[in-house]
Amino acid sequence: MGLVITEITFDGPAPSLARIAEKVSELSGLTVNFEDLRRLSDQLHDEYGTLEFACFPKECIEVSAYRANAVKEHLEKIGMNTWPIAKVVQGANEVVGTQTVYVQGYVGQEPTLFMMIVFALEALQGRLREPFSTEVRRAFGGPVTVAELECRRQKFHNRNLGMLLFALIAMPIVLPFHIALFCWQVIKLPWRIRAASRAVRQHAASGEPRG
Description:
This protein is of the alpha+beta class. The chain is built from 5 helices and 6 strands; from the N terminus they run E-H-E-E-E-H-E-H-E-H-H.
C-alpha cells in the first residue's frame, strides 16, 4: 500500500500533537484523539504519534516532527552523511530555525482526516510545500458531522471497490496483451543488438585514420 506524505513547515517550534488534535477538533466539529508513540529511547523526534476521529478510531493518520539536526547527526553517526541518499532522507535537510511536520497517510484511506490535519497545521501558522486547490479546501476545510463522514467513507469505499472490480474484469484482456508485448520485445532483441553492433562498426569505419 502506497504512502501519502505532506510537509508543513513552521518558523520556530512546531505545535504538539495535543495542540494539533485540538485544532482539528475545532475545524471539524468532531472529537479528535491522539496517541503519542515516542519511546524513551527516541532521540530523533520531538513529536511522533497518530491522530484519529473518535467516531472512527481504526483509521488514523501519522504525524511527526524531528528534533533540530537530529536526523543529520544520526546520518553522520552511522557514516551515511556523504551518501547521495542523504540529500533526500526525510528530516535531514530542514532549514535552521524551522521545524517541519510530516503528515502521513495511505493510498486507499478516506482523505477527510488527512486534509483536516493539514488545514489545522496551516491554521497554526504552518506553510504548505504545495498549496491545495480551492475545490479541495471547499470539500474538506469545514465542519463535518458523523453522518456526513460516514457517507464520505462509504462513497470512497464503493469507488475503490469499483476500481478493483474493473481491474479484475480488465485483467484477462490486459494481461495477455502485456505478455505478448514482452515476448515481442524479447524476440526483437537479437535484431536490435545486431543493428547496434552494425552501427558501431560503421561509425568506427567512417572515422579518420589514426596518425
